[in-house]
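Example: SAM-dependent methyltransferase.
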Amino acid sequence: MKGYDAETYGRAIAEDYDRRFADRAAEASAAAAALRRLCGSGPALEIGVGTGHVAEALAAGGCQIAGVDSSEEMLTIARKKAVRNLALCRHDVTAAPFPGDYALVYCVFMTFFMIGDNDAQKRFLRFAADALAPGGRLVLETFVPMESRLGGWTSRVRVGDLTAESVTLVASRIDTEKQVLENQEISFRDGKVELVPAQFYYHTPAQLDEMASAVGLRLAQRWSDWSGGEMTADSPRAISVYEGSSAAHGTSR
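Written out as structure tokens, the predicted fold is:
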């Protein structure tokens, strides 16, 4: 998407993010419960922490959490919450390693597909593998690209919220060969026009496994939801749990 970079999404949505996703509280709580079981007593690192929905819930249970994001606007809002056990910093997860050794590194709400192109995602996976303590786990929550949802069109406009005073449209463009999905959410309300662009470089679960394997990670579990539901051919999302190995740890440091 022309003019889009790692900070565009956060810059566009940060001020309104918590209002837009107020209904995520239950999902964030379920995610935190599952992540807490994986983390045990070790520290955890959230990639794309945003305004802190999941990290806040996880930290409330006593886990030490480090949260990084490319958006200073998102982090500014997260810092105002002053959550105990949660340390926040700005970090480009595709350009530099993460300091520290973590029992758990996680990236939720489809953020992995938003952190950059294929090369950037591969760099992120390498840094994530190196940041895991021996026996540590990496968790990725992603949507599953299915033909029924993404096939048969190259561009479209859908109607979102619609009231007598406002309307939200979502303009989308997809390149199924390159596996790139671009969205522009256009909201008309209070006499203003608001734009929230998003860009996804997506992969199938099998492709994710191949990328993870290349950096020494192996698939340990895969769920359809945070309660550990079984994946089926119709599951719209995948929660993938990868395990590191001592042999892979530190190879690019």
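Residues 147-200 form a domain with the N-terminal domain of TfIIb fold (CATH 2.20.25.570).
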